[in-house]
Amino acid sequence: xxxxxxxxxxxxxxxxxxxxxxxxxxxxxxxxxxxxxxxxxxxxxxxxxxxxxxxxxxxxxxxxxxxxxxxxxxxxxxxxxxxxxxxxxxxxxxxxxxxxxxxxxxxxxxxxxxxxxxxxxxxxxxxxxxxxxxxxxxxxxxxxxxxxxxxxxxxxxxxxxxxxxxxxxxxxxxxxxxxxxxxxxxxxxxxxxxxxxxxxxxxxxxxxxxxxxxxxxxxxxxxxxxxxxxxxxxxxxxxxxxxxxxxxxxxxxxxxxxxxxxxxxxxxxxxxxxxxxxxxxxxxxxxxxxxxxxxxxxxxxxxxxxxxxxxxxxxxxxxxxxxxxxxxxxxxxxxxxxxxxxxxxxxxxxxxxxxxxxxxxxxxxxxxxxxxxxxxxxxxxxxxxxxxxxxxxxxxxx
Length: 398
Description:
Shape: elongated
Oligomer: single chain
Helix content: 25-40%
Number of domains: 2
CATH superfamily of the largest domain: Crotonobetainyl-coa:carnitine coa-transferase, domain 1
CATH class of the largest domain: Alpha Beta
CATH architecture of the largest domain: 3-Layer(aba) Sandwich
Number of strands: 13
Number of helices: 17
Radius of gyration: 25 Å
Structural class: alpha/beta
């Protein structure tokens, strides 16, 4: 495979901030051609969202990597007309405005598909295109809360918590990329059919990740709740502190692994203790078991503990901060962090393309485009000359 699995797919990304643009970037990683469309004033919140170095938005640069960038005010008649001229060049249009916004701008689905009958339109919103919450604004933390995810996060006797990262946006972006790939497969199987509208709710994407919880509630009457880092569905599975104040996560929930953990701890008799004879029994007596593991971990430095656990083939991992990630020899060997060329900062580290396809070595993408960087290239392909572009620029259409 000389090109990526999505080579030949053309995506117009007119979305803002994180979730939907991340979906497009994942497709670009696998060979899709993506053009990023922004308003001419550069008001996309991702251009100012931390982390920012001086006037350079690092988040923008890494999240919009591998894309060409244009500006176009589609709210104006000239901008709307120019967008409709662009659409025949694309297979997919991605937007994440509040439900009804494109319609108010005169860009309803019928209008878009008159310009390109085979256009797939991915609409990623907080709550979907229908229902009583359809027009509500949304952010990652809202999706995390309303899906039930935040209810599971935090200490058992504490308040619900959010992590210090917009996980809800990234999960929605993953579903967005999956949706685009599914639409491409459908198009290749049925090349003469009209394009599809994809209605992707970020809240539903988060809910989809919590697969057994509804069945658990209906069939067993149980509402799964916060339990800190401890798993309440298998045991032992928790985070423990080492003698030198590092944290490790350890999972020994199957019977063979639990026996190996007991050997590693120097307490093989624990494996035959009736309190710990099965995962279900271990969960019933988890305080006693966790206490024993916690006390043992506290007697060894992280490197010593790692050596013992590796020797006994017990799954574990040190809880990494980002500096640990960058220094890890396995991740270095796999080049899990790549270096994006950047015209302002030289290079920027960023995660590699995921997954890896045999026969395809993705090119290192450049960081996200400057505002309107490829206007002449993209609009010039429509036949617009320098004078026309100057007039559109003067009218703040581009």
